[in-house]
Amino acid sequence: MALVTPPFARRRARAAAPDPVPAVLSLGLDATRLTAGLRPRRAQDRLDHSAHLTAHGPLPDPGEFGLHDLLALTERIALWERGTAGSPFHRKLRAVMAAARRSGLTTAVVVDAVEDDPSCRKDQVLLRRAPHLVLDGALLTAQVLGAQQVVIAVSHPAAAAAMKAAVTERQPRRRARGPEVRVTQSQERFPDGVGDAPLGGLDGVPTLRSNTETWAQLAVAARMGAARFGAIGQRDEPGTFLATVTAHASGAKGPAQTVVEAPLGAPLATLLERCGTDAGQGVLLGGYAGAFLTRRAADTALMSRRGIEAAGAVFGAGSVTRVPEETCPLGEVARAAHWLAAERVSHCVPCFRGLSALATALDDVVHDGGAPVRDRLREQVAAVRGRPGCSHPDRSATFVLSALSTFSDDLAAHALGSGCGRRVWGALPLSNGPQAAQTAERFTMDWTLCDGHALCADVVPELIRMEQDGYPVLSTTAVPPRLAARARLAVRRCPTLALRVERV
């Protein structure tokens, strides 16, 4: 007799499925630095300490590489944070040194490995496939600073496991008086920003915090020296960078992501071509804290901080997301706006109210149209931008405003015509980790049963609002995981059983 797996067991199995690591490519052998030793077709392979040393060689002897050498190196190679902030590393290092002198306290080093933007997966590649390279940069800095602690803050369970394994492999080799190394796991959350601060107070001591790729770049630079490190890239931005290229193929269940190592200043078009694609309708750079480029602008843009800023976008953490021709770009942005609203900080009013209203206004433009609806959307964007508090609502509004400008023809088609006629493919990634394996759900309504009680809108206003005629308007985007419990509560509260949640 055949065994049948119950539906709830299948759901549990999907949720427990491992989060795949993106494929790894490079733009030539000269650009293969951080990704040295990583085989493109073996995405789950991790370099143990022996394989790591074979690929990269040993670090400089700590006795011959001191604090002055570290400062000189990071200044000469113009090492900047490979995250959203992009701060010069040597400035943060000097700030921590000065704070330690003033306070008389020891220091700590933190690897900020909470990669929370779904469009960026480069840190996952480093954490899970080349963890010793990240440890090299952090430990070398800790040794020259005299830091007592190195903490790796990770959000993904698989990344935490890989880092813990790497730390264990090093235990017999570490000096007895070396810094304590800890791996901590925390829940990923998009609106963070704490990594921008140079002096995070870990246990009350001056703390040097930087993101995963920055530490890996430092480890490469310490081995190569400033001259060799700057042999590729641009004069004012030497070296390589890791880009996460997201491209959605027609008919696929979701976007495919590839991490590419390339010299700074490489053409964006070359980066896309290496991944077997082009700029599509346009490209989102810098993730959901970034901006869109038109296809024409993307065809001539250079991948450096200065080059991307000149093109009118944001380099950020190096994410490149293609908007395919087959999808509705404004529908994609509306879908992302609902995710951004769900990721909001609960006590922040611009996040809690403003982003939900902004996502709803986008829905209205995409599905209803009309000049008044378009004007209301622009008013909502203006209301969210520049508000005090966290930067999440301002960045989200800038992301939406960039889309309205880049896809102005589509905006006119939806607001003043009958729409663009394209479906939403889900080209913009909205989950980054274990939640990615979960099946998406969406509200549906049996309008023959609905009598406008409005109880559902009170429970989950981020996804349901009441129209002037007294009936609810449902978001057409998938229910974000953080709102799943309230979505089911809204269904249970419907007295006529008209509201349902169905799998997409």
How would you describe this structure to a colleague?
- It is a single chain.
- With about 500 residues, the protein is α/β, with parallel strands linked by helices.
- The chain is about 40% helix and about 15% strand.
- The chain is built from 18 helices and 16 strands.
- The chain has helices spanning about 5-15, 50-55, 65-75, 90-105, 120-130, 130-145, 155-170, 210-230, 270-275, 295-300, 305-310, 330-340, 350-365, 370-385, 390-405, 410-415, 455-460, 485-495; strands at about 25, 110-115, 150-155, 180-185, 205-210, 240-245, 255-265, 265, 280-285, 290-295, 300-305, 320-325, 440-445, 465, 470-475, 500-504.
- The chain has a six-stranded mixed sheet, sandwiched between helices.
- A hairpin with a 5-residue loop joins strand 9 (about 280-285) and strand 10 (about 290-295).
- Residues about 1-15, about 190-200 and about 435-440 have low confidence and may be disordered.
